[in-house]
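A favour, since you know our structure tokens better than I do. Just paste the record in under my message, thanks.
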Amino acid sequence: ASWFAFAALGFVAVLVAQRIGVRSVGVYTFIAVGIWVATLKSGIHPTVAGVFLGLLTPARPWLGTRHVLDRLRDAWRRLRHTEGNPKPEAVEDLLRSARESVSPLESLERTLHPWTAFAIMPLFALANAGVALRPEGLATPLAIAIAVALVAGKTLGITAATFIGVRAGFAHLPQGVSFRAVIAGALLSGIGFTMSLFIASLALEGPILESAKSGILLGSLVAGVGGYLMLRRVLAHPTEPGESPSQT
């Protein structure tokens, strides 16, 4: 209970820091590490802490558009009237205004994406797989059901939802994007290494878990290869002769 209280205090500290205008990434990183440790020690999976910290990350820039433009104009005015080398404080103010014109959420996403996509996620997938692929493991009803759900289920679900949204007028496809591209992207979404393996490891154990992992790996392989081949074909031939992107 005490560790859970420490984690709750950490979330309160994040809210207070945002309220008083703290913008240092180091401060929030320090608090986040404390929350992660406290959540782990409390017996709750630390992923939950990550989800809540993500929800607390501001999706709006620290400075509004008008404020940013005013600060940029002021900094530019000072730079223009500076003889020789510009003053460091003017340059720093200009750089700070540029940084704060982007939301913390977008900034973190850009900074962490290469690490997440090319290091953390593959390592997570390999660490959580831990299964020897055998023909008998792939032939179980559970493995087949999971593979079909990842490949066919996600493809049909995403494509159908997109089609209904477009036809109902709630959304529209971007210029040059056809429904064939949507289907290819939906097929790629069947790659379910990370979250599928994570959920399976939490819900299952023993031989059933091994079958589930085999189905996840099989479905991800089929979805990845199939989606890549289809998307490559779509990009090579965006539209058929006489066919507009919105009609495909």
